[in-house]
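Build the 3D complex.
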Amino acid sequence: MTVPDEAAKRRIVDLFLSEEERLLRRWTQLSGASPDELRDLYQALRTALVDGAGDFADVRGLLAELSRARVRQGHTPSDTARMVFSLKEALYEAAEADGGPEALRGFVWFSQLVDDLGLYTFETYTAAREKIILDQAEQLLELSTPVVKLWEGIVAVPLVGTLDSARTQVVMEKLLQTLVETGSEHAVIDITGVPAVDTQVAQHLLKTVVAARLMGAECVISGIRPQIAHTIVTLGIEFGDIVTKASLADALSYALRRSGVEITGAERARIAVRAERP
Amino acid sequence: MNGPTEMPIATNGDVVLVRQKVRGLAAEIGLSLVDQTKIVTAASELARNALVHAGGGRVHIEVLHGARRPGLRLVFSDEGPGIPDLEQALTEGWSTGGGLGLGLSGSRRLVDEFDLVSAPGEGTRVTVTKWAR
Ligand SMILES: Nc1ncnc2c1ncn2[C@@H]1O[C@H](COP(=O)(O)OP(=O)(O)OP(=O)(O)O)[C@@H](O)[C@H]1O
Ligand SMILES: [Mg+2]
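Done.
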């Protein structure tokens, strides 16, 4: 039993088009996906099969979008793949009901097409998930910002990682809030853990210091390592009258002195710092 | 060993990735800690300029094998609005975006070679090179 390719393809595409409502209903049942999503996909497929002369770029675009959305919504990979693959089952039922050799042969061709699209969906799903994992790792790395009370009246923020706008906002708010809650008049911003100070980081630091000042608190920036100092100077950033100290311990003893605490030796300040850090 | 790579600059996350890549290569070719920090900072500035002022772009990263010493070359390019007045853009403190206006002029000082090509409507290309000492 041989059926010419073209006739087979035409028959299955005809079935695909004429059985629209039944297909969509079955497809929705089998896949558990939303009818709207599937209808969009159906339309895109129809366009590709009928007008697009087999150009599936739009279908792929839509699938990529759907799989990215599904990653964000927390769907599993098999769920996502099922969304595409279950079209085969739905269409097979139509081909079986038709019963003709063209329809069945055409179905084989169509199911290869669906396999391709399914694999593509799976790939975009995986890529999107990897990207999210990467982003989260980055954020974790860059997001832990405890504000700690070092001493009566002195708080500190040890910054670790990169300071982007969103994170600086968080840091700044947290610092200002802690200043109020603890009634502190001194804040130490320690940048030992910041890998590079560029103009954006500098601007954020400067803004934080100004905001703290408006609340009556004085900031000391500590932990500027030699290579960072070098880079800051070369960039042309000026910290103006902001007090900077080499280490957190130096900053603490400076703040203690300013708040009138007697210190008999640098040793003691260092011990205090250690005691307060986790 | 390290062929040229190209990285997109479309998000803040991409800027972080560019910085990490540049730091890795800078260390690998033996730049001093100060020079590593300088080229990383320049990369950070130029990547963010592409992102902020041009809506995104890309960087081409290449390790150079000079006659006497290796180097690192970064080419940042975008199809943004371009810079109408290069001299002004390179003036310290000049910013159209409420920044410190130090990124471009500062980057020039942070690297050994600096080349800026830009015209209104034609995007911007900044090429910087840092040589190992
Ligand atoms: N890729 C670019 N496309 C278009 N315009 C740019 C580009 N890069 C820089 N510019 C222009 O040059 C100006 C100066 O850039 P520069 O990096 O020195 O300062 P900035 O980005 O405004 O602030 P920052 O100090 O935070 O970097 C910018 O304000 C912008 O107008
Ligand atoms: Mg800039």
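Residues 71 and 85 of chain B are 30 Å apart (CA to CA).
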